[in-house]
Write a structure and sequence with these properties.
single chain; 1157 residues; alpha/beta; 8-stranded parallel beta sheet; 30% helix; globular
Length: 1157
């Protein structure tokens, strides 16, 4: 990391020298000397970074270097702030009419600052010079990348030989690849196919390729099998020679490139070959194409298998989607660990096995980690040594024996320097933490980890780095937004260990509830807690060099320590995150007065009501995030003084009714999530005119725009970086409706959106016609989502909407006069790209299109959500519809559903009239429907026995809140062989099931019967025992809805568990809840030997557990809550039933008086 820090310092110094800052301030010699020293040190830093792993003296030297570098960074930051302040005063002096003394660096105040900074720079220069001299004794030298690549290639050479007996959990992956290779041959593929296998270091990519290479099916189908280890050096001549040598089994003469390539083509011509290129790092597409052209000479069906850590390599080389290698299961990891740790021992020591299984959890499913940790324990039989490894952090174990971190470090050292420092910073997040890309980029920027490049915004550079780290397998579990952009991700535990091993004690995550000592060298600190947090921070007050502080809590805490303000003396702090906290305004004020270097402030989702004016003193602040501060009423009046501010997030602040004045003066602003128009001076919508905004913008209270010219001066049409725009009016009880309509139309016409827009929302617009710019399909060809809400006076949608080439999502709410969505003409397709349509509260909507019935419309529509459209029927052909959700449905609409023969999911809800479910509604869904939900049919009493007959694909059935439904007809569940989930909830009148209910449900895995208090023991048929695949069963006398609405009504009648439950061999999860009359649990409960989790809640009469609970050896979790008698008997160590449950690893007893034990 020292290399990364110094690189940034050099860039900052050079930037200041170019701007002649040193000349103006009289420190040019010091700056040039510092630049020279830093350049000298930087030349050998890569060698030092690698050697510090083996040489403690070099590690200490790097620490000293980094400490001094951070002090220099603070000084340069102060220089930047002083220069910015002087420039601002100069500009202010030029524009004012008042007589003021000339502001220059030679006035007394600035002279004092200049001398002070010069003295600091001289001191830092001396210390750096001493450190630079000290480097000589380590004999560090500048690393040449080609030499380094050669060293790595020699170390990491692989071959095609594999010990198949010691490979676990990859059979399915192997078969999938082998089948592809064989099928590709049998189907006579003409082009050379390339199958990429991708995964982080240590995942077993090479092992999998070896398994494929040695499979008999592959050997039979290919004339030639070739294995080449590529590594970092993708030299086409070298690889050509290596392929020849592997194919012939003989050394190849050192020829020029052309004769080598001709010799290779002669070897492969008229042969069907498979070539494995192992461990590829090359990202140069031209290099790959040169090699591929040589290899495109074999018979059709020839294939290449590529293993790589980089998704980018897979995308360049692959001809099919990449095969992302998943982690091993814990069981497979244990087998691998056990084989290495115990070898051929016939007897395993139970105490070591128990510890070993916990050690395996450290591996995170990575085979190399399991192998290396197992090997480490092979010669250790002392339980203390095993416990030491179990409790140690991975990077603290002997690195010569643990090969997983060196394997991962290879990926790290392959990164560009800028990427390295950004990746290592991610150690600040706890393991398994969801990291939001946008927040991470802001934290990087705040800590100077991203360097500007030309005219490219630093945020765009950060976005590129995030994408690259994902493509290089450093991030996983990614979430994408609707445009396919990276939104959030996690790091694998071992990748987190890698980041932590690089940052060491400079980055820490501490649990304040169980604090451990942390180093005073910590620079980036995350505090997690579940109680009052700030007392512990008094310890970290002494860490004056802290750069990042994040407070994380699983939920909000409303009792906050008064010492909050006294805890913050972090003068070098760049980033402070305290979202989801209750922060007193006095504490925020104190915080602001002490943090002159602060660049990122995130207090989103907090209870703060007013942001103090002291925030305006943070001249370095780049990002202020108060998103969803629901109590926030006011922003600082002088917010426009924050001249460096680039991002202001205020979305979801529902009590905020006006903006601070003169937002337009924030010329650096790139993000303004919302703007609230006001008629007062400095708060007009034209304040947006000069701002180059990006991302999302919501504009509220547009009724307060005084004129179309004011709206036009907002310059929305020129904001080419805007991706999402919401234009919203508020409810205004104006007496002159026609004048209001005209005003809305003129203002909206003037608020022309930019052509780059992806999302457009128009809310509570009262004009009769939409603007002309919305009718130009050529301008808005990039729009993906449109929402029109509350446009009550509009008769129809703009015809251009149907012609937008990329429009995938259309949402329409509360358009009272709309009769049709599509007013298109016959023979002319419209809404060709539309995937989802949401229509709610359209009182006069008659159909989706005015074209004739049975006509095919919306050819790509897959999801349709309908709510309270009382006149609507579905009479047209929707050939692609998969998901239909109808709320507030009438009988006519239900009957028209039979036209939709491709449905896979159907939800129908909220009908207050139907007593009988209409016959034949579901008859056309026999092979397509997989999910059915019927919700809120208040008067529904009867279902036809053949209602579900023929739904052979049905996997989920949910019947909820049908209060008058007392019985299911005989045979209603017949033939539902594919059903996996059945939920009957809040059907308060249900009294019984027919005898044959569960006979055909052998595949059912999840059954929930909740909120049917009339059910008794005899209500459950013996056919329950046919549920041989049932894994999860939840029985609850009352559900959450009934508890909240009718807490004292309909006490459940069940007094004992149905006998048939004892015959459920696969049951793993059992919940019994809300049965106040249940007096005893049966002894046969011990027959449920597969049970993994048992939860018993709100059963006050239960007095003890059956003795047979001791037979449940697979039970991992027992939860008891609101069962007073049972709670007492199950108290740890002292309860009368404790001996029955002491063997269960996780026992959670919620004591009604004392809380959880």
């Amino acid at each position: 990391m020292a290399e990364a820090v110094l690189t940034v310092l050099l860039e900052n110094l050079n930037s200041m020298i170019q701007k002649e800052f040193g000349l103006v301030w009289g420190v040019s010699k010091e700056m040039e000397k510092l630049t020279s020293i830093l350049s000298t040190i930087c030349a050998v830093l890569e060698d030092a970074e690698e050697r510090q792993l083996r040489d403690k003296a070099i590690k200490n030297w790097l620490r000293k270097l980094k400490d001094v570098s951070e002090e220099l960074d603070d000084i340069l930051n102060e220089c930047g702030m002083e220069a910015s302040q002087m420039e601002y005063k100069r500009q202010k002096h030029r524009t004012t009419q008042m007589v003021q003394p000339f502001v220059s660096c030679f006035n007394p105040i600035n002279t004092f600052s200049r001398l002070k900074i010069a003295k600091k720079l001289k001191g830092i220069s001396y210390r750096l010079d001493e450190i630079a001299k000290e480097r000589l004794k380590f004999h560090l030298h500048e690393l040449v990348r080609d030499e380094r690549s050669s060293q790595i290639r020699d170390i990491r050479q692989t071959s095609s030989i594999v010990d198949q007996q010691n490979v676990y959990g990859r059979e399915e992956d192997k078969d999938r690849i082998v089948e592809f290779l064989v099928d590709c041959n049998s189907s006579n593929c003409r082009d050379l196919s390339v199958y990429p296998i991708v995964g982080m270091g240590g995942m077993g990519k090479t092992t999998l390729a070896q398994l494929v290479f040695n499979d008999e099916r592959v050997s039979r189908h290919f004339d030639a099998k070739i294995w080449v280890c590529v590594s970092e050096d993708f030299d086409v001549k070298r690889l050509t020679k290596a392929i020849i040598e592997s194919a012939t089994g003989r050394a190849c003469d050192a020829l020029d490139t052309d004769p080598l390539q001709k010799r290779l083509q002669n070897l492969l011509e008229w042969k069907k070959f498979v070539l494995v290129l192992d461990d590829v790092w090359n990202e140069d597409q031209e290099q790959w194409e040169r090699l591929r052209n040589v290899l495109s000479c074999g018979l059709s069906g020839s294939s290449i298998v590529v293993t790589t850590r980089l998704k980018k390599v897979a995308s360049i080389m692959g001809t099919i989607p990449m095969h992302q290698l998943s982690i091993l299961s814990e069981d497979d990891c244990w087998l691998l660990f056990k084989q290495r740790a115990f070898g051929d021992e016939s007897e395993e020591r139970p105490n070591l096995v128990k510890i070993g299984k916990k050690i395996v959890q450290k591996c995170g499913g990575v085979p190399l980690a399991a192998k290396t940790l197992g090997s480490l324990m092979h010669f250790e039989r002392d339980e203390k040594e095993w416990l030491f490894v179990m409790e140690s952090r991975l990077w603290n174990l002997q690195q010569d024996e643990i090969s997983i971190l060196p394997a991962l470090r290879l990926s790290y050292f392959h990164l560009p320097i800028e990427f390295r420092r950004c990746f290592a910073y991610c150690a600040i997040f706890p393991k398994n933490f969801i990291i939001f890309k946008e927040r991470l980029i802001h934290l990087w920027i705040a800590n100077d980890l991203i360097s500007p490049k030309g005219n490219m915004d630093v945020e765009d550079i950060g976005n590129k780095i995030c994408n690259e780290l994902y493509w290089r397998s450093f991030f996983q579990d990614v979430m994408m937004d609707e445009f396919g952009n990276l939104q959030s991700f996690k790091m694998h535990d071992l990748v987190h260990d890698l980041a932590q091993s690089i940052m060491e004690d400079e980055c820490g995550v501490i649990d304040i509830d169980n604090p451990n000592n942390f180093s005073q060298r910590v620079r980036h600190l995350t505090c997690t807690y579940s109680d009052r947090p700030f007392g512990m921070l008094s310890t970290s007050c002494k860490i004056e060099s802290l750069r990042t502080l994040m407070l994380l809590s699983p939920r909000r805490y409303w009792q906050v320590a008064n010492e909050f303000a006294n805890c913050f003396h972090f003068h070098s702090l760049r980033a402070f995150v305290a979202n989801d906290q209750r922060l007193p305004p006095t504490s925020i004020s104190f915080l602001m007065s002490n943090l002159k270097h602060l660049r990122y402030l995130n207090i989103s989702n907090t209870s703060i009501k007013v942001l103090p004016e002291s925030i305006c003193s943070l001249q370095s602040l780049l990002t202020l995030d108060v998103t969803y501060c629901l109590s926030l009423e006011k922003l600082p009046e002088h917010l426009s003084c924050l001249r460096s501010l680039r991002h202001l997030y205020i979305k979801g602040c529902i009590l905020l009714h006006q903006m601070p004045p003169n937002i337009g003066k924030l010329t650096c602003l790139r993000t303004l999530s919302c703007f609230i128009v006001n008629s007062r001076s400095g708060r007009h919508v034209d304040e947006l005119g000069s701002l180059n905004l990006c991302g999302e913008l919501q504009i509220f209270q547009l009724e307060k725009v005084s004129s179309p010219m004011e709206a036009k001066n907002s310059n929305l049409a020129r904001k080419m970086n805007l991706k999402s725009l919401c234009l919203s009016w508020s409810h205004n009880e104006s007496s002159d409706e026609s004048s209001q309509e005209k005003n809305h139309e003129l203002v909206l016409e003037a608020l022309e959106a930019p052509p780059t827009l992806r999302i457009l929302e128009i809310v509570k617009y009262k004009g009769r016609h939409f603007p002309h710019w919305l009718s130009n399909a050529l301008i808005f060809e990039n729009v993906v989502r449109i929402c029109l809400d509350g446009c009550k006076n509009c008769l129809e949608l703009p015809t251009a909407l149907g012609k937008l080439p990329l429009l995938r999502h259309l949402v329409i709410f509360r358009m009272d006069l709309l009769r049709y969505v599509d007013y298109g003409e016959p023979g002319r397709g419209s809404f060709l790209s539309l995937k989802s349509l949401t229509i709610f509260y359209l009182a006069n909507l008659e159909g989706l299109s005015r074209l004739e019935e049975r006509t095919e419309i919306f050819p790509g529509l897959t999801d349709l959500l309908i709510g309270d459209c009382s006149k609507l029927t579905l009479r047209h052909c929707l050939q692609s519809i998969n998901v239909l959700n109808v709320r507030g449905c009438n009988e006519e609409l239900l009957k028209s559903l039979s036209n939709l023969q491709t449905l896979t999911s159907l939800e129908i809800s909220y009908n207050d009239d139907l007593v009988f479910f209409p016959h034949g509604v579901l008859q056309n869904f026999s092979t397509s429907l997989k999910r059915l939900q019927i919700l809120g049919f208040k008067k529904l009493q009867h279902l036809h026995s053949d209602m579900l007959i023929g739904l052979s694909a049905l996997e989920e059935l949910h019947i909820i809140s049908c209060h008058e439904l007392e019985h299911f007809p005989k045979g209603i569940f017949r033939g539902l062989n594919m059903l996996k989930t059945m939920e009957i909830e809040d059907c308060s009148g249900l009294k019984s099931f027919p005898a044959d209910s569960f006979e055909d449900l052998a595949g059912l895995e999840n059954l929930q019967l909740c909120g049917s208090p009339e059910l008794e023991v005899h209500s459950f048929p013996h056919s329950l025992q046919h549920l041989s695949s049932l894994k999860d069963l939840k029985l609850s006398g009352r559900d959450i809805i009934q508890l909240s609405r009718y807490p004292h009504k309909n006490a459940p009648k069940l007094t004992a568990l149905p006998e048939a439950l004892q015959h459920l061999p696969s049951l793993q999860y059992l919940t019994i809840s809300q049965y106040p009359n249940l007096g005893v649990l049966p002894e046969w409960l011990g027959n449920l030997t597969s049970l993994n989790s048992l939860s018993i809640k709100f059963c006050p009469k239960l007095a003890s557990l059956p003795t047979s609970v001791q037979q449940l050896t697979n039970l991992q979790v027992l939860e008891i809550s609101r069962c007073p008698k049972l709670e007492q008997r199950c108290e740890k160590d002292s309860g009368e039933d404790w001996h029955k449950i002491a063997h269960i690893p996780h026992v959670r007893v919620w004591n009604s008086h004392r809380g959880q034990q």
